[in-house]
From TrEMBL:
<keyword id="KW-0560">Oxidoreductase</keyword>
<dbReference type="InterPro" id="IPR008927">
    <property type="entry name" value="6-PGluconate_DH-like_C_sf"/>
</dbReference>
<dbReference type="Pfam" id="PF20463">
    <property type="entry name" value="PDH_C"/>
</dbReference>
<protein>
    <submittedName>
        <fullName>Prephenate dehydrogenase</fullName>
    </submittedName>
</protein>
<dbReference type="InterPro" id="IPR046826">
    <property type="entry name" value="PDH_N"/>
</dbReference>
<dbReference type="Pfam" id="PF02153">
    <property type="entry name" value="PDH_N"/>
</dbReference>
<dbReference type="InterPro" id="IPR046825">
    <property type="entry name" value="PDH_C"/>
</dbReference>
<dbReference type="InterPro" id="IPR036291">
    <property type="entry name" value="NAD(P)-bd_dom_sf"/>
</dbReference>
<dbReference type="GO" id="GO:0070403">
    <property type="term" value="F:NAD+ binding"/>
</dbReference>
<dbReference type="GO" id="GO:0006571">
    <property type="term" value="P:tyrosine biosynthetic process"/>
</dbReference>
<feature type="domain" description="Prephenate/arogenate dehydrogenase">
    <location>
        <begin position="5"/>
        <end position="286"/>
    </location>
</feature>
<dbReference type="GO" id="GO:0004665">
    <property type="term" value="F:prephenate dehydrogenase (NADP+) activity"/>
</dbReference>
<dbReference type="GO" id="GO:0008977">
    <property type="term" value="F:prephenate dehydrogenase (NAD+) activity"/>
</dbReference>
<dbReference type="InterPro" id="IPR050812">
    <property type="entry name" value="Preph/Arog_dehydrog"/>
</dbReference>
<dbReference type="InterPro" id="IPR003099">
    <property type="entry name" value="Prephen_DH"/>
</dbReference>
């Protein structure tokens, strides 16, 4: 198994701390540093065993790093890349965990002195929980991790980043940034929007008094960090609008079926949905 000397996590929230914790447990990194502009967050990550060395300055955290993982909100990438740019060296590789890729790669190309040393990553793992105290190495096993290399991306960088996510037992997929953003709009960003809209519907029509596990499970994503979701939805706005348009068409179709009381069409729709989901579960989790 590939092992590096030092991994640095830039941003010690839930996902960043979880990467650090899993990288330590897997043996991928001998040492894990974590940096946050709020030193208390980095120290909290250290207290739960997610990192070994807490920092509040990127320059200090990267001095001995072999690989840096950027785990900050999407709105912070321009700033982070601008801080990393003067610190770049040929043996410092950079990746991220951002939920969109086109905007992140554009930012890397804009700010980094050598963008070929950056590789976009998106581990499809997370939780509605927040903060390093909720870090868990169990977020990653058997989940997809998407890599979006450019034609000139450093080959050793690709190998190192692939080794990181494989050490965390993730399933590696490679695609273009545009393909990534289109697909995640459907299976990640749209579900967050749908959960929020379901809550808003209950706010208007009521029903909380009789709500139980079905409503709880369906709306779980509405408990996710709102500023983070604003970042993601805004960054992937065109693809999300396309997904929402298709979702609206599906709702319109269901309404027409119900208005005409077409029981067979309703059965066909629900059966197809059941079969499609069961096939996905069988393919992905068995």
């Amino acid at each position: 198994m590939t092992q590096i000397n030092q991994l640095t996590i830039i941003g010690t929230g839930l996902l960043g701390a979880s990467v650090g914790l899993a990288a330590k447990q897997s043996g991928f990194a001998k040492k894990v540093a974590g940096v946050s502009r709020n030193l208390e967050s980095a120290e909290k990550a250290a207290s739960v065993g997610a990192i070994d060395m807490p920092f509040d300055k990127i320059s200090d955290s990267l001095a001995d790093a072999d690989l840096a993982v950027i785990a900050v909100p999407l709105s912070g990438f321009d700033y982070i890349f601008s801080l990393i740019a003067p610190l770049q060296r040929p043996n410092l590789f950079i990746t991220d965990v951002g939920s969109t890729k086109s905007s992140v790669i554009a930012s890397a190309k804009k700010h980094l002195t050598d963008p070929t040393l950056f590789l976009g990553s998106h581990p499809m793992a997370g939780s509605e929980k927040q903060g390093p105290e909720s870090a868990s190495a169990n977020l990653f096993p058997n989940k997809p991790c998407i890599l979006t290399p450019e034609p000139d991306t450093n080959r050793n960088l690709i190998n190192t980043v692939t080794a990181l996510w494989q050490a965390l037992s993730m399933n590696i997929l490679t695609m273009t940034p545009e393909q990534h953003d289109t697909q995640t709009a459907v299976v990640s960003h749209l579900p967050h929007a749908a959960a929020a809209l379901l809550i808003q519907t209950a706010n208007t029509l009521g029903g909380y008094d009789v709500a139980s596990t079905g409503f709880r499970d369906t709306t779980r994503l509405a408990s996710s960090n709102p500023p983070m979701r604003v970042d993601i939805m805004s960054a992937n706005r065109p693809a999300l609008i396309t997904a929402l348009s298709q979702y609206r068409d599906q709702i319109t179709n269901l309404m027409a079926i119900l208005e005409s009381n077409d029981r067979q069409a309703l059965l066909d729709l629900l059966t197809l949905s059941q079969t499609s989901r069961d096939h996905w579960l069988d393919d992905s989790f068995h």
